[in-house]
Amino acid sequence: MALSWRSWLANEGSKHLFLFFWLSLNVWLFGKTFLLYNQGLQYYYLHQMLGLGLCISRASASVLNLNCCLVLLPMCRVLLAFLRGSQKVASKKTRRLIDKSKTFHVTCGVTICIFSVLHVAAHLVNALNFSENYNEEFVTLNAANYRGEDPRKLLFATVPGLTGVIMVLVLFLMCTASTYAIRVSNYDIFWYTHNLFFVFYMLLMLHVSGGVLKYQTNLEEHPPGCFNPNKTLRQNLTVPKAFEELFPDYTTEPFPEDPPVPEPFVQNSFMRVCSEEPKFQSHFPETWFWISGPLCLYCVERLYRYIRSNKPVTITSVISHPSNVLEVRMVKDDFEARPGQYVILHCPRVSALESHPFTLTMCPTDTKATFGVHLKVVGDWTERFRDLLLLHSNQDTEILPIFQQRRYPKLYVDGPFGSPFEESLNYEVSLCVAGGIGVTPFASVLNTLLDGWKCYKLRRLYFIWVCRDIESFRWFADLLCMLHNKLWQENRPDYINIQLYLSQTDGIQKIIGEKYQALNSRLLIGRPRWKLLFDDIAKCNRRKTIGVFCCGPNKISKILHKLSNSSNSYGTRFEYNKESFS
């Protein structure tokens, strides 16, 4: 399969180039800071005491500052949704980079973990050097109190040391709980440990305020390695005992000023004369400058989101669909959303702290204020949520209008937030591939097209839906049939190409119901032949750019991703977009 570099650049090239740039930036920052502390005169005496441990600890700290600063920005969902929905980001490529915000967040997190290991190792060496290389000449430069002090005291009995140890533990919990295995097996562990980031940042603010590492401030008066004649003369001068008895206070008084030094000696290039002792001062905590802005921005956004979602929604109906899928329809004042976006649901009766994202399957319009979500009951949270909503959780199908005497639990909605599927209406041709419950992002797109399709750029939609059982198609069978009939009535039957694939079956099956005849003719047994499908789409849409959108298992995603990067003989280019779920 030939690789199209143009398609690769459109799908993966921009991401890889950005990651390469980000890696280069971190390496450059590390090297620049390393050279500063290795060659900077203001760190001469500290470097003599600590060696390379100083350079590595400070260089890694600069990289940590940068990544701790930016790791929060991808989590500012309101800001990203605003940028995606505004006209300020007109470039489609730039908006697609915004969709990689999660990748950037993970990249920053991995970078923090790697350089934290380097930072900790360097400071362990520094603690040992502070103890062994205690300098009696420059007492203020020492972090230890005396030579041979136990280095563990510097780690557990000082503010920088103790906060550093706790931060390492917090970071370890956050990193291990972020692995794919933990997220799939127990999402609650990931959610709770990840919210320890606030503790991490508070400890980080305290960690950098210790002022352990100091720099010299009077380089003009005391160049590193200079000759101090006043100190040298006092050390080498021998005072007669009789003179000392007559003038007992003489030896305790320092020279009033440095003795005059011959001009040729002062100008000697091999030895400079210093006029005073070196003075040392702690750095102002630079980390505060790095993280204060993003941290304040994130806190302001969280406050805004809390105020916006503080009023509970009104649940209008709850529908239990086959295959453990629950549909919740609701209304909320002044709620606006675009097709493809998602919301975060929070039900205090289910969990006081937990909240979970769900894609909107129905968006409010000018004529109706109702919006809805479909959620698959697969975990503890969704099971408890279902039991609270349904009168009898074992019923297959139940529609409970709001006017019935049924008190629903309070439900709070935060959002909406942007996703890659908002772009599906901005292509002339789009290919939407769904696996199972992954159809939910496309349901809102189909509902929007049902209300009116002429106002959008989209002129042809290929909709591929793969399910394991026949009953799953009934989640949106009515919607698909209504859209199909509408387009036929408007003489645009070619606007949407629907293909339904039943991957597991014992024989020929049909979606039950006479009204689903249009879907039964499009129901295929087995899995799609993706290569033939892409070739057929490319042949029918020569020299066009097709948006590929996938929400489903990683296996399907990887196949589509590879095919989008491959070349074809029709000049058709595929741009890949993806939303994965576990």
UniProtKB/TrEMBL annotation:
It catalyses: NADPH + O2 + H(+) = H2O2 + NADP(+); NADPH + 2 O2 = 2 superoxide + NADP(+) + H(+). The chain crosses the membrane at residues 20-39, 59-83, 104-125, 154-177, 189-208. Its EC number is 1.6.3.1. InterPro entries: Cyt_b245_heavy_chain (IPR000778), FAD-bd_8 (IPR013112), FAD-bd_FR_type (IPR017927), Fe3_Rdtase_TM_dom (IPR013130), Fe_red_NAD-bd_6 (IPR013121), FNR_nucleotide-bd (IPR039261), RBOH/FRE (IPR050369), Riboflavin_synthase-like_b-brl (IPR017938). Residues 308-423 form the FAD-binding FR-type domain. One of its GO terms (cellular component) is focal adhesion. GO terms for molecular function: NAD(P)H oxidase H2O2-forming activity; superoxide-generating NAD(P)H oxidase activity. It is a multi-pass membrane protein. Pfam families: FAD_binding_8, Ferric_reduct, NAD_binding_6. Keywords: Cell junction, Cell membrane, Cytoplasm, Disulfide bond, Endoplasmic reticulum, Glycoprotein, Membrane, NADP, Nucleus, Oxidoreductase, Transmembrane, Transmembrane helix. The keyword Transmembrane applies. It is found in: Cell junction, Focal adhesion; Cell membrane; Cytoplasm; Endoplasmic reticulum membrane. GO terms for biological process: defense response; superoxide anion generation. NADPH oxidase that catalyzes predominantly the reduction of oxygen to H2O2. Can also catalyze to a smaller extent, the reduction of oxygen to superoxide. May function as an oxygen sensor regulating the KCNK3/TASK-1 potassium channel and HIF1A activity. May regulate insulin signaling cascade. May play a role in apoptosis, bone resorption and lipolysaccharide-mediated activation of NFKB. May produce superoxide in the nucleus and play a role in regulating gene expression upon cell stimulation. This is NADPH oxidase 4. It comes from Pheucticus melanocephalus. The lineage of its organism: Eukaryota, Metazoa, Chordata, Craniata, Vertebrata.
